[in-house]
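The record is passed on directly below:
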Amino acid sequence: MTHHQPYAYLGIGDGFDHVRRRIELVPKLKTLKQDATALIESGLAPWQVVKAVKVYLYPRVEYALRHLHPEDQHLQGFDDHLRRGLHHLLRLPQSTAKEFYYTPVSRGGLGLLPLVEQRAALQIAHGWQMLHSPDPAHRARAALPDR
């Protein structure tokens, strides 16, 4: 493998080709949409569907969100698809606000996290880990401003 040659880990290519890395998440999100649709149409109780989304769908995209730089519109597309499906499944009124889906369960919502916000939180956490790494080379690289 050469210095500029990418490699794949957990199905996600890693390397210096940022355009390719940006596009790589699209097929994964398409698969997640299909899986979300299958869950919604599965006949499970609504609470079971919401739990399955949190436990099985979100973790599958977490690694990709840490290491890829997807367009917000792709992430928003998945969130919209999931929200529409849950809206139909839960038989919610048309006036239901978006906030209901993302409000914590302790406050009466479904407790979902938008992928755009999840990506931002994961990238901040990754940056924090890099800045506080025991390896001085990692700390120095993390402290450099992006160009």
